[in-house]
C-alpha cells in the first residue's frame, strides 16, 4: 500500500522509516531509466527545486511520514498507523507554489499511491491543485488534507475541495484546540498537538511535540491506508464513508463544524 506524502521531503534513513520508503526503479546514474520524465527519481522528486533531492531540512515531511508509517513492532521509536510504503513528493523547499503541490499530487498518483497526505493549507484558492485533486479522485485515490491552522471557519485549501477529506484537530482532553480551522467541509478530527513522531535531525531522533492540523491529517491518511489494506476492494469514496461513519461522535451531537463526524 503506497501512501504519497506531499510535504517538505523525508529523512529516508531514519531508523523507523528506512524500511518503509518507496524506492523507484531509476538508480542515480544521470538517466531516466524508467522513462517517467524524471531523471534519477530513485527516492521521489523535489518539485520545489526541480531535482531529485528529497531530503527534509525542515522536518515537517519526516514528522508526517512517521505518524503514517513508522515501523510497527520493530522495537524502536514510535508506531505508525499502518504497514505502508511512503512515497516522497516534495512540494516545499524555502518556497513552494500551487504548481509544485499539483505536480507532486500527479507524480504520487502516477507512481501508484492509493492514499495521499497533504499536510498543507492556504486560505487562497489553488486552481492547479484542485485539478490535481480531481485527477487523484478520478483515479480512486483517497486524498487527506489538513483543515488549516487559521482558528476559524474560513475555508483553507485543498482541504475544502470536495474530493478531499478535511481533518481538523482534537486535543488529549477531547477539546477543539484554538489553532485548528473548522467548518462544514470537515470530515473528521484527529489528534494534535503534542504528537511524538520521527525527527529529521538524526536517524534515531524523535520530535516530542508535532502540532497543528498537519499532525492531525496523517492519522487519517494512515487509517485510510489501513482500511484499504484490509479490504482492497473498497473504492476511495467507500473508505471515506467508512471512516466518517465509524468516527466517535464528540462535541455537539451528530455532525458539527468543529469535529465533523467525530
Largest sheet: 7 strands, parallel
Radius of gyration: 17 Å
What structural category characterises the helix and strand content?
alpha/beta
Low-confidence parts:
none
Strand content: 15-25%
Query: What sequence of helices (H) and strands (E) makes up the elements?
Result: EEHEHEHEEEEEHH
Helix content: 10-25%
Give me the number of helical elements. Answer: 5
Outline type: globular
Number of strands: 9
N/C terminus separation: 26 Å
Can you list the strand order of the major beta sheet? Answer: 2-3-1-4-5-6-7
Mean pLDDT: 97
What would you say this structure looks like, in words?
The protein is of the alpha/beta class. The chain has five helices and nine strands; from the N terminus they run ββαβαβαβββββαα. It has helices at 60-69, 98-110, 127-138, 213-230, 236-246, and strands spanning 2-7, 45-46, 85-90, 115-118, 142-146, 164-170, 186-191, 195-198, 206-210. It has a seven-stranded parallel beta sheet, sandwiched between helices. Strand 8 (195-198) and strand 9 form a beta hairpin. Helix 2 (98-110) packs parallel to helix 3. It is globular and about 60 Å long. It starts with a strand and ends in a 16-residue tail after the last helix. The mean pLDDT is 97.
Helix and strand topology:
Blueprint: E1 2-7, E2 45-46, H1 60-69, E3 85-90, H2 98-110, E4 115-118, H3 127-138, E5 142-146, E6 164-170, E7 186-191, E8 195-198, E9 206-210, H4 213-230, H5 236-246
Amino acid at each position: 500500500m503506497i501512501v504519497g506524502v506531499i510535504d517538505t521531503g523525508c529523512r529516508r534513513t531514519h531508523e523507523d522509516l528506512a524500511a518503509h520508503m518507496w524506492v523507484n526503479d531509476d538508480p542515480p546514474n544521470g538517466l531516466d531509466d524508467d522513462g517517467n520524465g524524471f531523471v534519477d527519481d530513485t527516492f521521489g522528486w523535489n518539485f520545489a527545486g526541480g531535482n531529485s533531492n528529497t531530503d527534509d531540512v525542515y522536518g515537517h515531511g519526516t514528522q508526517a511520514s512517521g505518524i503514517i508509517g513508522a515501523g510497527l513492532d520493530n522495537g524502536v521509536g514510535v508506531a505508525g498507523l499502518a504497514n505502508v510504503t511512503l512515497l516522497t513528493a516534495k512540494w516545499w523547499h524555502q518556497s513552494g507554489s500551487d504548481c509544485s503541490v499539483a505536480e507532486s499530487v500527479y507524480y504520487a498518483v502516477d507512481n501508484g499511491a492509493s492514499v495521499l497526505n497533504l499536510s498543507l493549507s492556504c486560505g487562497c484558492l489553488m486552481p492547479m491543485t484542485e485539478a490535481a485533486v480531481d485527477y487523484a479522485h478520478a483515479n480512486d485515490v483517497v486524498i487527506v488534507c489538513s483543515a488549516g491552522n487559521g482558528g476559524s471557519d474560513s475555508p483553507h485549501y485543498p482541504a475544502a475541495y470536495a474530493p478531499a477529506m478535511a481533518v481538523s484537530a482534537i486535543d488529549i482532553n477531547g477539546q477543539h484546540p484554538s489553532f485548528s480551522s473548522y467548518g462544514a467541509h470537515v470530515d473528521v478530527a484527529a489528534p494534535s498537538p503534542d504528537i511524538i513522531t520521527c525527527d529529521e535531525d538524526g536517524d534515531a531522533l524523535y520530535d516530542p511535540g508535532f502540532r497543528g492540523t498537519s499532525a492531525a491529517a496523517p492519522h487519517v491518511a494512515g487509517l485510510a491506508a489501513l482500511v484499504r489494506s484490509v479490504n482492497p476492494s473498497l473504492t476511495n469514496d467507500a473508505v471515506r464513508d467508512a471512516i466518517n461513519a465509524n468516527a466517535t461522535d464528540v462535541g455537539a451531537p451528530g455532525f458539527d463544524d468543529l469535529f465533523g463526524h467525530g
